């Protein structure tokens, strides 16, 4: 509890801000984003080529949701690398009154809700990361989950 109060003394949502924007300002995270981006773009280009070359309409329809989903992550990573201050600028543009200006009961309520949002953000981010890793590990050779693996197994045994 003391650590929490110390962290959130100046800003109740500092943890949410860090997870949603500040973490992407660090050089090692930018390098990881770039590696992720290169792998995803390469994978998508190979899949586009092989879809065009070999797939029939049934296979195209079957794999389209799995093929299209990574574009969301690719665009998000591109935005974070090309325009890194977008989210940070958003926080600066919003005029937030200091919590100390509120009455004691309102301040306590705001801090309690900020704590709940922060816990949710931490748990949600952790669960997303863990489930992403587990999906990749547990389904490493599942062609219905990772189409690119099917192509690699077919063309580079």
Give an account of the 3D structure.
This protein is mainly α. Helix 2 runs parallel beside helix 7 and helix 3 runs antiparallel to helix 5 (70-82). It is elongated. The chain has one domain. 4% of the residues are buried. The protein is built from 8 helices and no strands. Keywords: Membrane, Transmembrane, Transmembrane helix. The chain crosses the membrane at residues 31-51, 63-82, 116-137. This is OR14.
What shape does the CA trace take? elongated
Average pLDDT figure: 80
- Regions with pLDDT < 50 over 5+ consecutive residues? none
- Structure class: mainly alpha
Radius of gyration, whole Å: 21 Å
**SSE order:** HHHHHHHH
Approximate strand percentage:
under 5%
**How many beta strands in the DSSP annotation?**
0
Give the topology:
Blueprint: H1 2-7, H2 14-20, H3 27-54, H4 57-68, H5 70-82, H6 86-93, H7 104-138, H8 147-155
Helix pairs in contact: 2-7, 3-5
């Amino acid at each position: 509890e003391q650590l929490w109060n110390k962290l959130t003394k100046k800003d109740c949502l500092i943890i949410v801000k860090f997870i949603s924007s500040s973490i992407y300002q660090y050089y090692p995270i930018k390098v990881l984003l770039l590696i992720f981006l290169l792998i995803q773009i390469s994978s998508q280009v190979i899949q586009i080529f092989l879809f065009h070359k070999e797939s029939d309409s049934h296979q195209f329809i079957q794999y389209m949701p799995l093929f299209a989903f990574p574009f969301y992550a690719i665009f998000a990573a591109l935005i974070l690398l090309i325009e890194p201050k977008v989210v940070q600028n958003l926080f600066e543009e919003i005029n937030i009154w200091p919590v100390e200006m509120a009455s004691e009961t309102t301040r306590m309520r705001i801090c309690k809700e900020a704590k709940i949002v922060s816990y949710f953000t931490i748990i949600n981010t952790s669960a997303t990361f863990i489930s992403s890793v587990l999906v990749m590990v547990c389904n490493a050779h599942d062609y219905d989950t990772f189409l690119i693996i099917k192509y690699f197994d077919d063309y580079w045994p």
